[in-house]
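Data card: per-record layout.
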Amino acid sequence: MSRKLKRYFWLILSGSLILLVVLAAIFASVLTPYDPLKIDPLRVLQPPSAQNWLGTDEFGRDVFTRLIYGAQPSLIVAVGATILAMGIGVILGVLAGFFRGWIEQVLMRLVDALLCFPPILLAMVVVGLLGPGVLNLVIVIGILYSTTFARLAYASTLQIKAMEYVTVAVAVGVNNRRLIWQHILPNILSPLIVQASLTAAATILLESGLSFLGLGVVPPTPSWGLIIGAARNYMYQSPMYVVWPSLLIALIVLAINTFGDTLRDFLDPRLRKWL
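The structure for this 275-residue chain is written out next.
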């Protein structure tokens, strides 16, 4: 298989897996007849069967159903936090790179200050103060990962601003707002899109970790992190109970990272030698 076909293959495969998970989360009520919250004491920790494809949990709830519904908060946090991070980061980075001076110093030092703390530790502190919940997760994770977008937008803006066509636009009297909207943002969009895909994967991992620690999604709402946290107590009675959500998280994160990596090759002309 040629390099070109391999790139298309991985792009289509990873994109299809992401789309499959998204559609399953949206149409969860259609894909399974079970209630993710309904307890059945007579079917506790059952192995996989025709009725329960992935078995049942410690409360007799269908694991397959819980996994499908558990994708909803994870995807909501991933999409919401990524959009928020991208919005905040791009504004900070573009303003710092375009205007320079004291604006650059204030904004980029603020970004550097946030980067001094590991995301998981800072998220634990903030969520511990604000309380768990999907909305709080979106806000906290979005602010944390805005630093990545800010640094990327800042570096890209400096590069684009030094281009000759921008210098010519300034010379003919184009105002700053038009320069930013028509010359800066369109030309820094490609790396930002790729970064958005990578941030979404990191966000899913962080949300799952916080939920695993009891600082994310509030029970009994299903979440992949919560399911792993509950399943660890029953690893000997039902080993596959902890494997399914772990495998699902690994697959979706791998798919998003692969999709972002191959998408970068399509969007960056310097990396499209195989086209």
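Known properties of this structure: Residues 251 and 267 are 24 Å apart (CA to CA). The chain has one domain: 3-26+53-271.

See the next section for split statistics.
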